[in-house]
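User: I'm curious whether this sequence folds into something compact or stays loose and floppy. Could you predict its structure so I can see for myself?
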Amino acid sequence: MNAMKKIFLLLFVFGFVLLSCSDDDETNIENPNPNPVTSAEFPVQSFMWNAMNLWYFWQGDVADLADDRFASDADFAQFLASESDPSRFFFTICNQHREIVGNEAAIDRFSFLNEDFSELVNNLSGVSRSNGLEFGLSFISQGSDNVFGYVQYILPGSDAAGKDISRGEFFTTVDGVQLTGSNFGSLLFGDNNDYTLGMANLENGIFTLNGKEVSLTKVENFVEDPIQVAQTLDVNGTKVAYLMYNRFLSSFNEQLNDAFGQFVAEGATELVLDMRYNPGGSVNTSRLLASMVHSTDTDKLYIRQRWNDKIQSQFTAAQLEDYFANTTGSSPLNSLNLDKVYILTTGSSASASELVINGLAPYVDVVQIGETTSGKNEFSITLVDDPGNSFIYNSDRENLINSAVSWGLQPLVGRNENADGFFDYTAGLVPDIVLDEDLLNLGVLGDVNEPLLARALQEISASTTKRSFTVQVPARMFTSSRLQTPLKDNMFLDKPIEMNN
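Assistant: Here's the prediction. I'll summarize afterward.
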């Protein structure tokens, strides 16, 4: 029997990783499958099956991923040949998983893949092809296929930042063509780098082009700063920190820490954390943010990982448990040491955003304001065709990735639970104070009169004069510019993997 070795592999968590067993049932991570099931005729599908068989969180529940699914290489080859399209092959496997979301059975909603793994890796650091316009898309009316877009915010330093377009504006056409549910992808995303938006007014439920056009250009290697707004407000003598944070990017951990240093220096005693558009990202950055909010006590458990049954017992306690932090890794952590926090959410708040809320809940009075969150409580890792590294992407091993297979997988590989053991929020985290964004009054982000921020400030000030928050036209989007990026709404694990000896 080969003894299990302790290994340290940098994981980018976006999906499941394949793990195989040796003849004596002892997992060997360095060589996960000494006698792999192979089929040279279908290298992409073969890679996908082997990787998912090892790491997919629900591997034990998916019949086609069972360890004894194939009696021979010929059976395996026949299965791979059943679907020539790699994307459909992948999702056919993922869609065999069913879980209850609300009162309905749902398939795996979050695993995905990309034909070019390098694009996924770049997005992990906030590097993408972007014009800086972030927006939501909604259907104009029930039963209609026509679509309108509404501007949520503009990324500083982007092409859109220099154009005449701002939060709260509407558009209904792209290059003179009406947006629909079937053409929005080709008009706004994909390979379309340059387009012109036809702006519109909304009156009495009717959109009318107003003659204004805005031309935008996507640039390669745009680096997003996830800190949209960081400021301290004076609310009737109380110093309130306001942070609008739009992505958990580890490459901006120091800037995030500096923002909290600013809050501390300015005497903030309350915090409004705005994650209404934050789809997630780095698990470790979520831990750092939670520590900046609440505590740098490294004896306090933040979250605990749960992997599939095949590999759960192989992990050390250090791997499975994450505690609050007192350093970014380079700098002492700045913390407000709060026991109460106000967090703004919408249905776009997902994964690492929800992780912060759930991780703080055992220690902090979290007042959630806005809409129910997305309900993504699983994490993932990036998988590539590198069986010598258990299919886990490692930048130092790019020359060892099978050059014939460029695909990268982002399947779910684990789930996080908080210190109380709670993890069951697949239907989303429900706000304490329900308040939809109003398309006719989105407001200015960071302004005290912006509705969601104003509602939080009303709670903080406990003012006897209550403002009305009537919503005229609730924002109801079916997708957003965020969810059309390769990164989407994934939560990735960026810590070394440590196994039992």
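Summary: Residues 70 and 76 are 6 Å apart (CA to CA). The mean pLDDT is 87.
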